[in-house]
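Worked example 3 (structure in, sequence out).
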């Protein structure tokens, strides 16, 4: 296979010379004459090596290097500089460059660094492939799996272990295993430590393990030592097989998983903690999240958990009220202020005095309303429509949006000063596709709720339904799941919800084979990211190279 190389330089003569040197050696060479052109080429092809001039018009080769590294690409970048120095070399290496070449670039130096960079890049690709197999094994297991180094520092935890420990797998990397296992949980530490010390497989039966506040009866604890290339033990793998209920039944929700009327495992714990830290502080809060992620629930939790919970919580959907009516709705008006104003009216802000106001879809308000709202936040007073007498107010503002306000500011649709006033504290709510470990708990919660409101006796969902729920992308997030469960509960006459109880537009996905399911999801994510491969790969949780391979496999084209 011919290796692909990209040359990025705004001097055509240099590009021509380097391309000829490399083409003569059998490499497949592309050329870009600017930073922007290079980005376009990189977004549509996978390269093994990129040669980039440090000095480019408007941008630098270092900027391009950052983009390549942030895309999780194994492509090796070699910088070209006209003014070589120790500082140049150290900066290039610091940002992840493989090496650098001084101008004029000699043919022997060019080919020598290419021959060194290629094996290194291929070894990284091979390591990625091994990690993908390991990741697939981790994800596919119903057991809690934790890998540690020889000092019992955590290297990786799979999804099941994250659910038990109530942690984010990325955040616990490098933390001591002892942090998470106390009292009865010490058995877990002892098993994996024994495997490392004795350099052999260790297994113990019927051991209790404590995960934080939860104690689970374990069928088996087993641990394997891990050996490096020199045949020395470098760490271990701990596997915990616990008693668990069938996927067709509902799942018990612990108190730590349901707080403030919200369900959430590891990915929601930081949000629960933020709510508890903010509930008594009357600071402005901005909630970011897609439609259906629970922004209104967070606003309610912030208000109801605080010392002023007995004061009003007023909710306003800014997207459903016209500009003229919204001003009156928020700030009130006096009699005669406009046609139809037959008496004085108190606005939502004044009605919320002493409590909270929830401004949903804040990204949809007009520039005029943005300015008026900015004044209210800054001065803590308002003027009613048709009046010049200011009214003092004491209101905690919680605003919410599903828009990217930074982008809205950049494109001139949202005031920058208002944005910074709103985001004193910002809470980002994850979409359901990024917290799928919560789906079984949410299903249980909705079944319990619906059994009470609909007077039904449903016990759970069938295994194939739960499997499809875990595979589905949930564009409508938690709200969509709740609506589907309500539909199924109404339609079902059985104690177990199955495929025939699903809405027609949703159940069609059950009949897709795995090939079609994955292809559909990739296309959906690409379209949502406007076919930006780097962004789509990040959302899918895979490398850009892996995304290209899947696009080729499924014959996906823009």
């Amino acid at each position: 296979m011919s290796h692909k190389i990209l040359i990025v330089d705004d001097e055509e003569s240099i590009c021509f010379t380097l391309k000829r040197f490399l083409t003569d050696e059998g490499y497949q060479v592309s050329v870009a004459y600017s930073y922007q052109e290079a980005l376009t080429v990189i977004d549509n092809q996978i390269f093994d090596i990129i040669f980039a001039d440090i000095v480019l018009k408007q941008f630098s080769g270092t900027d391009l290097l950052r983009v390549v590294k942030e895309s999780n690409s194994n492509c090796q970048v070699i910088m070209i500089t006209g003014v070589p120095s120790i500082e140049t070399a150290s900066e290039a290496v610091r940002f992840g460059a493989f090496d650098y070449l001084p101008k004029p670039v000699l043919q022997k130096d060019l080919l020598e660094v290419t021959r060194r960079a290629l094996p290194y890049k291929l070894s990284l690709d091979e390591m990625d492939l091994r990690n993908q197999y390991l990741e697939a094994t981790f994800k596919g297991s119903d057991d809690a799996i934790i890998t540690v180094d020889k000092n019992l520092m955590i290297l990786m935890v799979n999804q099941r272990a994250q659910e038990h420990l109530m942690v984010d797998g990325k955040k616990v990397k490098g933390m001591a295993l002892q942090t998470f296992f106390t009292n009865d949980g010490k058995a877990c530490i002892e098993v994996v430590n024994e495997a490392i010390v004795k350099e052999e497989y260790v297994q113990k039966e019927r051991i209790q393990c404590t995960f934080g506040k939860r104690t689970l009866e374990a069928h088996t604890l087993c641990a394997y030592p891990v050996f490096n290339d020199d045949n020395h033990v470098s760490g271990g793998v701990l596997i915990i097989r616990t008693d668990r209920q069938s996927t067709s039944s509902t799942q018990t929700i612990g108190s730590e998983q349901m707080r403030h009327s919200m369900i959430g495992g590891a990915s929601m714990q930081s949000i629960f903690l933020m709510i508890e830290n903010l509930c008594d502080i009357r600071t402005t809060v901005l909630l970011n999240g897609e439609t259906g992620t629970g922004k209104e629930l967070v606003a309610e939790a912030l208000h109801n958990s605080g010392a002023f919970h007995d004061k009003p919580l007023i909710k306003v959907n800014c997207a459903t009220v016209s500009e003229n009516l919204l001003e009156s709705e928020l700030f009130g008006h006096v009699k005669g202020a406009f046609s139809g104003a037959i008496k004085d009216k108190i606005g939502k802000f004044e009605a919320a005095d002493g409590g909270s106001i929830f401004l949903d879809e804040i990204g949809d308000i007009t520039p005029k309303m943005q300015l008026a709202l900015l004044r209210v936040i800054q001065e803590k007073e308002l003027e009613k429509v048709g009046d010049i007498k200011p009214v003092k107010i004491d209101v905690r503002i919680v605003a919410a949006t599903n828009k990217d306000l930074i982008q809205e500011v950049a494109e001139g649709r949202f005031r920058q000063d208002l944005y910074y006033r709103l985001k004193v504290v910002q809470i980002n709510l994850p979409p359901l596709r990024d917290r799928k470990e919560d789906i079984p708990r949410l299903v249980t919660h909705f079944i319990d709720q619906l059994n009470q409101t609909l007077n039904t006796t449903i016990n759970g969902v069938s295994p194939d339904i739960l499997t499809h729920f875990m595979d589905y992308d949930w564009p409508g997030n938690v709200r969509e799941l709740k609506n589907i469960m309500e539909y199924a509960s109404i339609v079902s006459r059985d104690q177990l919800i199955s495929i025939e109880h699903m809405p027609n537009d949703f159940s069609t996905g059950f009949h897709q084979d795995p090939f079609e399911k994955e292809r559909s999801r990739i296309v959906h994510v690409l379209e949502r990211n406007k076919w930006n491969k780097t962004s789509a790969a990040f959302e899918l949780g895979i490398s850009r190279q892996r995304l290209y391979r899947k696009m080729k496999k499924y014959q996906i084209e823009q």
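Notes: The radius of gyration is 29 Å. The mean pLDDT is 82.
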